[in-house]
């Protein structure tokens, strides 16, 4: 008799993984990057803008926007400023 595979939603998987203190620590280190990516994706989608259109307006390449949204790389402040301007938004930084 075959055992059935258990499938998890992303939320369920995250909840399960966050029980591990080591995983939680590493996840929390990445939170600022997650936040930047989520906010850029959200703003771009609210404007009904493609990555290609955002890249054109921010004077960069579509691959740069893809990496930024995928958290692959360390964006410069100047890139974030251009992206914010292209999205008609502003950057807010908080050190707490």
Automatic annotation (TrEMBL):
GO MF annotations, alphabetized: DNA binding
Source organism, top-level taxon: Bacteria
HTH cro/C1-type domain segment(s): 40-94
Alphabetical list of SUPFAM superfamilies matching this protein: lambda repressor-like DNA-binding domains (SSF47413)
InterPro entries in UniProt: Cro/C1-type_HTH, Lambda_DNA-bd_dom_sf
CDD domains (UniProt xref): HTH_XRE
Full protein name: HTH cro/C1-type domain-containing protein
Organism: Candidatus Gottesmanbacteria bacterium RIFCSPLOWO2_01_FULL_43_11b
